[in-house]
Amino acid sequence: MKFFELRLLNKKQLRNGLIMYNYTVYVKRLNDKFKKQEHTEIVDSTISNTK
Questions:
Q1: What is the rounded CA–CA span in Å between residue 28 and residue 5?
Q2: Which of 1, 16, 18, 24 could form a disulfide with 8 if both were Cys (CB 3.0 to 4.6 A apart)?
């Protein structure tokens, strides 16, 4: 099934080293309307995320 996806990434610097990432994803399947999905993630840049 074919679909189109448009991703918009919004990055905001919050106080105390926090960074907020907001993903807005628009998904469109054939013969269908765009569906909007929002994802918000807050990352503490003072903590290393290495595993």
A1: 6
A2: 24
The helix/strand/coil state of 50 is coil
Give burial (CB, 10 Å; 0-12/13-18/19+) of 25.
Answer: middle
For 11-21, the pLDDT digits (tens) are 998 888 888 99
Report the C-alpha gap between 28 and 32 in whole angstroms: 6
Contact criterion met (CB below 8 Å) for 10 and 22: yes
In a domain? residue 16: yes
50 lies in some domain: no
Q: Pick the closest to residue 24 from 4, 42, 40 (CA basis).
A: 40
